[in-house]
User: Fold this.
Amino acid sequence: MYSVSSNIELKVQVEDIWKTISSHGNLNFYHPFCHTNKVIEGDKNSIKKDILIYLNGVIYEREFFYWDEMNGYELMIGKKNGKKSKVVWKIFKNKNNTFLRIDVFPYKTDKINSLLYPFVFYFYIRPKLKSYLNSVLKGLEFYLYNNQKVVKNQFGTHSWFS
Assistant:
């Protein structure tokens, strides 16, 4: 299975990271390509489903299927009736360092010949997703350290979502 990962070291407490990434509408504060993030199903302790509207108008649903308090969550993301990609958000510590890692397992599109897919993935999809994840994590870091909402495209534009 193909995947793309990015992680960041954050010099804050696990509780602060968890509070930020698990709060309702959290992407509105630190996601540089997010126009709107709204919970459509959940309770005060967790999110079951939300909507992410990107700056370019693309609308994705995120359905959370695993929620582990203070450690992370897993979700499926994609267009409402389209194929979905799996995403894993994981907080972890080693010694005095705290990290957040995001892993994306993108769906395999039928629009690309299966023989060509590995090349398209490694030379196009993977770099685009890596850039995207790095921007999201930079946004989270900025928000946690400065207590300020990121501005749109703060770390540069992205051809898929800006």
About this structure: The helical segments are 14-22, 27-30, 117-146. The radius of gyration is 16 Å. The mean pLDDT is 96.
